[in-house]
Amino acid sequence: MSDTRARHEPMTAVYPDLEGKVAVVTGAARGMGARFTAALAARGVHVVGADINEEQMLTTAREIAAELKGEKPGEVIGTRIDVTKPEDHEAVAQLALERFGRLDFWVNNAGIFPFALAGEITPEQIEATLKVNVEGVLYGAQTAARHMEPGSAIVNMSSVSAVRVRRGRGAYCTSKAAVAHLTESLAVELGDQGIRVNSIAPGYIDTEMTRWVKEDPAALRHALDVVPLHRLGSPEEVVGPLLFLLSDSARYVTGHSIAVDGGSRHV
Ligand SMILES: NC(=O)c1ccc[n+]([C@@H]2O[C@H](COP(=O)([O-])OP(=O)(O)OC[C@H]3O[C@@H](n4cnc5c(N)ncnc54)[C@H](O)[C@@H]3O)[C@@H](O)[C@H]2O)c1
């Protein structure tokens, strides 16, 4: 985390209806989850950031609080979660309710990306990918729905990989296609409770997850080739769609996926 303040200042007045709301963001120790947490807190949202890497999560929460000091931001609490465990989700929800008294938003962001050819992928890799990326989203949504009031919103992190296959990503693509479909199913069912469920489908976003792309000249060349805008996206460039989907501006939007991929789903 660095320079959070500078990167958020231009947008702090956008979506004032978010102020005072309460969010859970999973996988918030780094990458997009950390950026989402900082962006929400900068707009007055109280956030429980949860990650399997508890130490990094606590550090990130402290850094965000320090960077937003003096701006009347929302409070940020860091805690541990293993999203493959339903009981961990419930504990995080209880923490949000105890500390902030309500639960408005749940961002199912935690994910893993194993690179393995279909002929070589191990049962352990397949199981872990489906457990974290798919079951983790389902348990998060189930938990959120138990505690949310009408008007609340869930956002799941899907991927361009839900609609485009590339070599070595069979398990990941399968898991993200499942997230896209799960999002639509959840939207249909949770609509009865007035809860909206949408997904974001990023392309190549510059985080630890895609570090291998930057480190491999051939992979980077290929990535830039298949992105019509010919560059990787930054985590900050995914913030706008997240805020929109959570905000009242999207109150009639559910079961939708917003691609943030520089156009790569078409190539
Ligand atoms: N970076 C990209 O290009 C890209 C593209 C499309 C989709 N996505 C998706 O966006 C989301 C965020 O990606 P990122 O690039 O910020 O990833 P990242 O690897 O930087 O961060 C993922 C976070 O999830 C946490 N996590 C992993 N397993 C967990 C578990 N079992 N329980 C709790 N936390 C766990 C990790 O500790 C990490 O902090 C992921 O779902 C990813 O699949 C990323």
Automatic annotation (TrEMBL):
Annotated keywords: Oxidoreductase
InterPro entries: KR_dom, NAD(P)-bd_dom_sf, Sc_DH/Rdtase_CS, SDR_fam
A single GO BP: fatty acid biosynthetic process
Coiled-coil intervals, chain numbering: none
Pfam family, one: adh_short_C2
Stretches assigned to the Ketoreductase domain: 21-203
Family: Belongs to the short-chain dehydrogenases/reductases (SDR) family.
Descriptive protein name: Short-chain dehydrogenase
